[in-house]
Design goal:
With 543 residues, this protein is an alpha/beta fold. It is built from 22 helices and ten strands. α15 links the parallel β6 and β7. α10 packs across α12 and α11 packs antiparallel against α12. The longest helix is centred in the last third of the chain and has 28 residues.
Length: 543
Amino acid sequence: MAVSTSFAGAKLEALFLKASASSSSSSNASYLPRPIWTRRVQRGVRCEVVASDVAQTGSSSNVSALEQLKTSAADRYTKERSSIVVIGLSIHTTPVEMREKLAIPEAEWPRAIGELCGLNHIEEAAVLSTCNRMEIYVVALSQHRGVKEVTEWMSKTSGVPVSELCQHRFLLYNNDATQHLFEVSAGLDSLVLGEGQILAQVKQVVKVGQGVVGFGRNISGLFKHAITVGKRVRTETNIAAGAVSVSSAAVELALMKLPEPSHATARMLIIGAGKMGKLVIKHLGSKGCTKVVVVNRSEERVAAIREEMEGVEIIYKPLTEMLTSAAEADVIFTSTASETPLFFEENVKDLPAVGPETGGLRLFVDISVPRNVRSCVADVDGAKVYNVDDLKEVVAANKEDRIRKAMEAQSIITEESKQFESWRDSLETVPTIKKLRAYAERIRVAELDKCLSKMGDDITKKTRKAVDDLSRGIVNKLLHGPMQHLRCDGSDSRTLSETLENMHALNRMFSLETEISVLEQKIRAKVEQTQNDKCIKQLQAQF
């Protein structure tokens, strides 16, 4: 669905008003404006809290789910198309305190996909979990029930109550969900407009999802198309020129807080030698820093970084010497994947004071989610703590130029969104193709049996095979024309429209729609699978 110019312009204006907002240490949900999703609510996308989402904390029985399928305002439910839905919490809507509880490590993404697809109304799933966002993309057999099940799953895995999730989450459906992921991949939804790391993270979703049951055709196609959009936007708009990553924004923030004469002499410590830590070292070097200390579990990664950056002296320290190294540092960057904090109030307060030449404050710049530095460290005299939510101070520069580039990117995203929706529409014919083939095969088998029975029991295997091949050949030739008119790659809207008309015509002519709906089959299969799994668990418990 194309997005109106007025909506795109308003969204971009709000996006950059947010980017230039003054910094705030508040952890309240309103600490950042929420223009993107507010605008989408005005367009009719349901984002508000539904009372039943909060009130119904217990899950319904499997049987009742199927009964609801059959007895609800049923035609609308059973005939509705599967929906692409994103249930998300990002830096724009959710404070870091909640995002870190919801974060899912990359190694756990396949498990999460499996659990999500085990829910009654979820067919496909993907997880995009970064320092700035936690977004779950699903293909839902029912929008309302799917959102409810995923929200409850998120609450169960994170320990965050459903009521709190509903206060901060945003919900987008179908075209809006597609456009959102394309904007994310293009860097338009990032705190730092045009940053390139998010595109790599979207690519990683596809890489991890390959071969995972539940990372299906629709979700896989969506993420692969998002990668194409991200590349195209960066190539055609040059939006990444001059843009900064989260790591470089962290370096800029640290330098903003240090007295300028101390930039070249401040003692820098980096905890973690992963991608983020490596980028921090790189940007420190570009700002004139010639010596850094890196604390990491192993020395191999640090040695590899040392070979790449000859202009910076990189000193390795093991994790056991972290506090000793922190005592000798003026600025400490943390960027590890640790799920538990590394710095607490009790061990920071014992560190010696830093000199007045660096402002008398030891700076902790924590760009990890979950956070590596406990918020209580900020209460220690002589310590100042910054996290990813504080980086907005850095991103207000060059606003006009970035708005222009973002407007160019929006036109590309609108075009690509239409292409993806056309491709997805073209998949509508797949059930008809299968049903038409099954219908023809039933007739072929029935008529073949009649023919063979009339020919008697003494016919040879060769004759039997010849008759069988003849019947298959006739059916295939008769189906060739209709099948050709049901196939479309979605690239041409006129051809797609004709293809869908052909599909509806064939459904009417051969009464294919009188068969049990595809969605009802999927729901029934889900229910039966769940019941089977319960039986197996009960049997295993007995033995």
